[in-house]
Design brief:
The chain has four helices and no strands. It is mainly alpha-helical and 67 residues long.
Length: 67
């Protein structure tokens, strides 16, 4: 899991770490990161999709630009 998270863009990785590993609510993340709640939700959604692709795909296409 840690390897997959490391391949995410910085802003997506930060949201995943704060939400899942630090158990910080979206509302609190918005305050901490000075971003609207909608932005945090969007970043979490994009990050989840990328992580799902990482775990379900044999292809490395999803991580282009990170190697």
């Amino acid at each position: 899991m840690q390897e997959a998270v490391q391949f995410l863009e910085k802003e997506l990785r930060l949201c995943i770490v704060l939400y899942y590993f630090e158990d910080i609510a979206i509302k609190d993340m918005a305050v901490i990161l000075s971003q609207p709640e909608g932005t945090i939700k969007s970043r979490l959604s994009r990050a989840r999709k990328k992580l799902a692709a990482y775990f379900t795909s044999d292809s490395t296409e999803w991580r282009k630009g990170y190697e």
